[in-house]
Amino acid sequence: MRVYFSGSHSSGKTTCARYVSETHNLPLISETARMVLSEKELQVDALRYNMDLVDEYQSEVFHRQLLEEAKYSSFVSDRSAIDTLAYAGQHSRILPKLLREPQLDPYLASLRASDAIIFFVRPTKATLSQDGVRESITFEGVVAIDAQIKLLYEMYGIRYFQVSADSMQERVKLIESVLSLCSG
Are 117 and 3 in contact (CB under 8 A)? Predict the structure, then answer.
């Protein structure tokens, strides 16, 4: 079973992913964007004005997501490569290049497989909070990424389960219901 929590920043994906990882004893793939930022010792400010650096960073995040997922047959992931494509479209110049990557078609097929369960966590004003990484978070910015992610899932015909509740209790009920139906 491969479980993805997909959606914009500040929507509560990490909390949900940690819950499923711990409850179902599955390895957790942390957000690859943060991994790359940390490893390269990049500051978010540098990604605001240096477009070459932004392009390189977004490409590396995309490829790192694929690499991390390839390490496991079962996992919980805080994001999918679909998310990385949305962010690349919003912040860089390389989305057309990433859409032509030879790894993309097999990856999309893997997301359509029956063992892939994608929870699309929708943003709400209640989940909006500063995460210590991004300079500033606006609801408009969160909604813009959310819309791009939804477009990509719809465009590629990938099944997802929408998580819209503010309450963690309600989110857990939905997640557990879907997981029990998909794994049973």
Answer: yes
Average pLDDT over every residue of 86-104: 96
Rounded Cα distance between 56 and 164, Å, is 33
Q: How many domains does the chain have?
A: 1
- pTM to 2 decimal places: 0.91
CA distance linking residue 123 with residue 158, whole number of Å? 20
Look up tokens 């949305």; give the residue. Answer: 86
Residue 156 tokens read as 């590629």
* CA–CA distance, 9 with 30 (Å, rounded to integer): 13
Instruction: For residue 141, name the pLDDT band (cuts at 50, 70, 90).
Output: confident
**Residue 34 is part of a domain; what is its CATH number?**
3.40.50.300
Amino acid at the residue 56? E
Neighbours of 131 (CB within 10 A): 11
Residue range of the domain that includes 98: 2-183
